[in-house]
User: Fold this.
Amino acid sequence: GYCGTIVGAEGAIFRTEDVGRKWVRQESGVRFLLHGVSFASEGSGIVVGEGGRVLNTSNGGETWIQQNSGSSSFLLSVDFVTPSLAIAVGYIGEILTSQDGGVTWSHRESGVFGPLNGVSFLNEMEGTVVGWGGEILHTLAGGGTWEKQLSGTTNSLFGVSYIVGGGCTAVGLY
Assistant:
């Protein structure tokens, strides 16, 4: 089917299975601001948010399980790249990687101290992160190491998306 999931304040998670005609609230088990969501498949998803919160599901959100990210940073975005690989980003240049579907997380050095707002991967090796002050970080190592790239702006970048077969686009303030 055509499923979608949205997240928000007070632990809100809503899911649609009919392209957004009807949204059904799912019980997250938390009352914190949830800010990012990504699914690797129809059933396997990860949500991130306030205080380093990470929730994952393997059944389309029928149940969400809170995981220990090892971070207290506000996590802003997540990309669930494959059923095992996930990357989350947030405040204070936080980059976290998971190799087991979002159950355990490892901190990765970003060299950035401002918020990282968006993350997108083309495949399991190549990805991009964007953030405040025009920061762009790029990896060819599955998120293990990151290199800064020039953005041409000092304005904040908030989102990034790879287009299969056609490049990468970042958006932010002008």
The longest strand covers residues 157-163. The chain has no helices and 17 strands.
